[in-house]
């Protein structure tokens, strides 16, 4: 952490979290756009997303403070309370993910995992991929295809909600969250920093 006049530059997102975030955004975009047209590219994007999910689950346990699930996954009451506070424009500021952002991370990982699973299950019905030859290959092809599409579209919907949340949070707290995910740091005003320190949101 460094201090410049009335502001503090706080290290929040480590390099691996940032690489994960932008790689996942790229892989999902390519996978979504190539579905049905460029199957090989689509398959490999799916495998890449699966690997990224596994990495994030591990990093959420052993990674640095702000990458850990214990830092941002909260109970339902805290999420609801935070969302209500957004309506008043007086939402508490968090150095890392806020409660709503934390639940969105979990929702996106879960929906992406289901999308990848049903995608692999779909090609397994044609005896292709890592699930070929397993009990999954006996699933109804039409049903699996429909579930794969539902999960992919559900992920896209969550992405749009996530982007809207980023915009709202950036405007409310006067910080550039997109830039923070590129540089790994946040520039926080002195008053906010003092409040966060008192509330236990310690800096890296």
UniProtKB/TrEMBL annotation:
The chain crosses the membrane at residues 12-32, 44-62, 100-124, 147-172. It is a multi-pass membrane protein. One of its GO terms (molecular function) is electron transfer activity. Keywords: Cell membrane, Membrane, Transmembrane, Transmembrane helix. Its main location: membrane. It is found in: Cell membrane. Residues 12-184 form the Cytochrome b561 bacterial/Ni-hydrogenase domain. This is Cytochrome b. One of its GO terms (cellular component) is plasma membrane. One of its GO terms (biological process) is respiratory electron transport chain. It comes from the Bacteria.
